[in-house]
Specification:
Length: 388
């Protein structure tokens, strides 16, 4: 088979172009394998020319010497990297990887030679805290305090004294002050200044005796509670009595009817007597009886010595009352209590064991005391007199 080989003449290889740029192809001896290849002329061939130029320089000027230098530096670096230049602990044991022992800090305890009699786990403390939280979250019962009043010399003193006591009681509390015939501006001004939530009521029934007027005033307040269906604990607080804050706190523990002993001065004003229940814990088992005129009564309790749930007035079915007649005061305390409860089993004695006196009734007769000369009852209850 015949082959045709085209040879390149020197004139063709070294020929210059018309634009003045010359180009020469590398010789076959420049390549390591001795094979020659021809590359076309283009702009991308500049990178190839630089590569072949570098290969040519290494091949001509001694690539063996460069290779020996690289080999020498590689050996030196390997020796420096492997040879140790300091002390290293090569003894690796299991303890080097073990977790450290965690021990509590030392505590200096000074023990006395005493026997441990009891151990408290704090259960009672937690129960007490839960009870306190429950008391804080549970809303308090409303107290409905009924006070009859009338125009007399010490009316301003009595109302202000009782108002300041009620102001210290935790709300909710509503103070029902009942006057006879008409509501006076002086009484309304006193009630506004006390800072206690109040309702100013009027009893329109006329009566000749003070006791009957007081009965009508209380019944007017009871009718108001029944008509508006106020929910709370009803307490008759006469304006001339003395009360402790503990009493008002104990009233909120009453479920249906609660009673307590009341201390009072005897008619002779030379000794103190008790009137009210005798209790075994919270159960009423008897009564204190002192006055011969009251020995025939069924229940021996003062009018300010008991309190009851207001729902008895407007929801008799809740308490199983056999009759639906309105509960009103007729004449004495015992006739009123008989409308609310049947016997002592439905009563609650407060405080525990009825062992504390929380209410004083002094029976001070001040009806004969008149206003000083120059005072006008219709306009003023308080006056400032110049000192001579």
């Amino acid at each position: 088979m015949a082959s045709i080989r085209r040879t390149l003449s020197p004139a063709h290889r070294d020929r210059s172009y018309q634009n003045g740029a010359g180009f020469s192809y590398p010789s076959n001896k420049f390549l390591p394998n001795g094979s020659g290849k021809h590359f076309p002329s283009s702009s991308s061939s500049s990178h190839l020319r630089l590569l072949f130029t570098a290969v040519n320089l290494v091949y001509r000027k001694g690539w063996r010497r460069s290779f020996c230098r690289c080999l020498l530096f590689f050996v030196i670096g390997f020796v420096f990297g492997v040879a140790p230049f300091g002390y290293t602990d090569t003894d690796v044991r299991d303890k080097d990887f073990a977790f450290p022992d965690l021990k509590p800090p030392p505590v200096n305890l000074q023990l006395d030679d005493r026997d441990v009699s009891s151990i408290s786990l704090g259960v009672n403390t937690r129960l007490a805290e839960q009870k306190e939280v429950a008391e804080l979250t549970e809303p308090l019962k409303q107290l409905i305090v009924i006070t009859p009043t009338r125009n007399r010399g010490f009316q301003s003193y009595y109302l202000n004294r009782l108002g300041h006591v009620l102001r210290l009681v935790k709300p909710p509390l509503v103070w029902m002050v009942v006057e006879e015939k008409a509501a006076s501006l002086e009484t309304a001004d006193i009630l506004r200044k006390t800072g206690v939530m109040y309702r100013h009521l009027v009893s329109t029934l006329n009566s000749s005796s003070v006791k009957e007027r007081t009965v009508h005033q209380r019944n007017a307040a009871l009718e108001h509670i029944e008509r508006h269906k106020l929910d709370g604990i009803v307490f008759f607080a006469d304006e001339d009595n003395f009360y402790t804050l503990e009493l008002f706190g104990s009233l909120r523990t009453i479920s249906r009817f609660g009673t307590w002993p009341v201390a009072m001065l005897a008619q002779s004003k030379n000794k103190a007597i008790l009137e009210g229940p005798v209790c075994n814990s919270s159960q009423v088992i008897g009564w204190h009886r002192n006055e011969k005129i009251k020995r025939l009564r069924r229940f021996h309790a003062d009018m300010s010595g008991f309190a009851f749930n207001s729902t008895i007035l407007w929801d008799p079915k809740r308490w199983g009352r056999p009759f639906s007649n309105p509960v009103r005061q007729l004449d004495t305390e015992t006739t009123f209590i008989e409308q609310v409860v049947e016997d002592e089993s439905q009563m609650e004695g407060i405080p525990h064991g009825c062992s504390r006196i929380m209410n004083w009734h002094l029976h001070l007769n001040m009806d004969n005391i008149v206003y000083p000369k120059g005072w006008l009852l219709e306009k003023n209850l308080e006056v400032t007199l110049p000192v001579k």
